[in-house]
TrEMBL record:
Keywords: Repeat, WD repeat. PROSITE patterns: WD_REPEATS_1, WD_REPEATS_2, WD_REPEATS_REGION. GO terms for cellular component: Cdc73/Paf1 complex. The keyword Repeat applies. WD repeats lie at residues 12-53, 54-95, 139-180, 181-222, 223-266. It comes from Mortierella isabellina (Filamentous fungus). This is WD repeat-containing protein 61. SUPFAM superfamilies: WD40 repeat-like. PANTHER family: SUPERKILLER COMPLEX PROTEIN 8, WD REPEAT-CONTAINING PROTEIN 61. Coiled coil: none annotated.
Length: 304
């Protein structure tokens, strides 16, 4: 019997404004949400109870991510400010990285927890040291607005998606562009590497999800089914399931079978566009965040 995902916890009015991003810390079982109300909130991943509110951004939160240990979080806001938070100390602010205007958008932590990579309006992919906030490097693309970023879990690849539909893949060790991936007609708002570190999933304003073979730089599959922008994609960490979760401006959440290249579930539980979706580290639960100000949890059948 195929796995099904059942809604379990609902947090309506989780923030005062719409929620644009969500992350599930791999080791500490914290769910983090970022909102247009300028705050990041930390929730107990099992119970949904609110634990901390991270305050200090002066504009809406664009992205939030954590290191693998779940000890640190990074958040970015519309004003290009990147903040680093200590999740082991009630979310205390460690320091801020004040990037130039337009030089920080969606940010992701490197697998080793040493760096944070952020796209920019100028087309650069900027790499900052998490420890002190200094800029380590800047990777150039083609002067397109970089809207999404993703590391492979082995740290070998760093990918970024642009507003013209192009995806750039860099070899991290060499700081070298190895692939320019085409196929999307509109902005690539979201990227996620599968755990095999060779498969890259992208979501676009063209309503499509693409699966890329990064080693060969080719599109392996194109998935259609959403009726709006694809705002978030996430590969299930449990590789035996071969699943992708996606969320869209059509207010829907879909679960896809990567082998069958088709949607196996659709959830319509939000009343506005769903900006973020994230799995827990076991791949048994997922959480979604929406412009309707709510956060919603799902659990696979058979999990507690």
């Amino acid at each position: 019997m195929p796995t099904t995902y059942i809604p379990t916890i609902v947090k309506d009015d989780a923030h005062r404004e719409g929620i644009w991003c969500v992350a599930w810390a791999p080791s500490s079982d914290l769910v983090l949400t970022g909102s247009l109300d300028n705050t990041v909130k930390c929730w107990n991943g099992t119970t949904g109870d609110e634990k901390h509110i991270l305050e200090g951004h002066e504009t809406g939160i664009i992205s939030v991510d954590t290191n693998k240990q779940g000890t640190l979080a990074v958040s970015t806001s519309i004003d290009s400010n990147i903040r680093v938070w200590d999740l082991e100390n009630d979310g205390k602010l460690l320091h801020s990285i004040n990037a130039p205007p337009g030089q920080a958008w969606t940010a992701k932590c490197s697998p080793d927890g040493a760096f944070v990579a952020s796209g920019s309006h100028s087309g650069n992919l900027n790499i900052y040291k998490i420890e002190d906030g200094s800029q380590a490097s800047s990777l150039s693309t083609k002067n397109q607005f970089i809207m999404s970023t993703a590391y492979s879990s082995d740290g070998k690849y760093l990918a970024c998606g642009a507003d013209n539909g192009t995806i750039y893949v860099f070899d991290v060790e060499a700081n070298h562009l190895i692939h320019t991936l085409q196929g999307h007609a509109l902005a690539v708002r979201t990227l996620s590497f599968a755990r095999d570190n060779r498969t890259l999933i992208s979501g676009s304003d063209d309503k499509r999800i693409h699966i890329f073979d990064v080693q060969h730089g080719k599109v392996a599959a194109a998935l259609t089914g959403h009726n709006g922008w694809v705002l978030s994609v996430a590969s299930n960490p449990d590789t035996s399931k071969q699943q992708i979760a996606s969320s869209s401006s059509d207010k829907k959440i879909k679960i896809w079978d990567m082998g069958l290249h088709q949607a196996i579930e659709t959830h319509e539980v939000h009343t506005d566009q769903v900006w973020g979706i994230a799995w827990n580290v076991e791949g048994t639960k997922l959480v979604s965040a929406s412009d309707d100000k709510s956060v919603k949890w799902f659990a696979s059948s058979g999990s507690s």
